[in-house]
Amino acid sequence: MSSGISRRNFFNKTISLSTGALLLKYMPAFGAQKNGIVPMIITSHSNETGQKAMEAGWEILAKGGTALDAVEKAANIIELDPEDTSVGYGGLPNEDGIVQLDSSIMDGKTYNAGAVACLEDIKHPSSVARVVMERTDHVLMVGKGAKDFALKWGFKEENLLTEKARKIWLRWKENMSKNDDWGPPDHLIDKAKEEAYWEGFPGEEFHYGTTNVLAVDMNGDVSGITTTSGLSFKIPGRVGDSPIIGAGLYVDNEVGAAGATGRGEDVIKSLASHYMILRMKDGRTPQQACEDAIKMIIEKYKAIGSDYIPSEKFVAINKQGETGCATTRIGNNPRMSVMTSKGFNKYEGTIKRKL
Ligand code: GLY
Description:
Glutamine Phosphoribosylpyrophosphate, subunit 1, domain 1; nine-stranded mixed sheet; five-stranded mixed sheet; 10 helices; binds glycine
């Protein structure tokens, strides 16, 4: 099967001045590259914050720092963006209006992993996941236990619900059902007035937004993070794929890394990130591995006689500098942000909805 990706699709975006300066400054360090290893950092986010995150992560890699430090630094930047309603601070809350975050981290060099789920009031779940990984013999901590653990390690308790996220949630709550008492009295409902009342606060049904950050460092060590506020308006306590090692994230120091965003329920059932790594081990390119994982999920539903295609986006990298990205979503081709010694790029992947 062809990867469906040509050089045409790998287009350079403008390299910012700061990035250019970084490249000039740290390029010599890359003379030390060995065994065809290509240091890089990617995120499934393709917005401005994603670019900033890549530049910050690259600064670490370019100085010879670890992939682990690079992915944490980059993920922290995305987690702090208050405009991003899918990750960290500013993420959309659960159905009770409480932001519950999920995140995982994996370090290929040490074959170690850490994760947190349903974490409340802490802005950097990926950093808490790193402490779980490095300072405990556990992999996954959830809910109150995860929060208490974070507080013991000095993380600050902060309100994660921004005004924007709160209003989007309230609008969703009012529109949820005609059979409850949220919203104006029936005799006063006026569609035009309602639109004006909620102006600036989108009427979102739900979304599964998440980000993956994956990196290879100069030593050829691989690390990854997946971090999210999860399915918006979820039932309190729901855990998605992001903190499940093998589902929302997997790293193998021999091969590369893979991550998922989208409907977590199907990513958990398919262990899609681990599957992508196995495909790459079998010689598939990252692009082919992403498409294989989507095909696997579509096939499962076909096997039970359903045409259902869940909304997913997968990303993968290998240690030779190849990247992959595929989605089931109709619309524009999926993109991800990539930073290497050649600068910042947006990689365009494929849409796959057929076997
Ligand atoms: N992929 C994020 C979630 O389902 O929670």
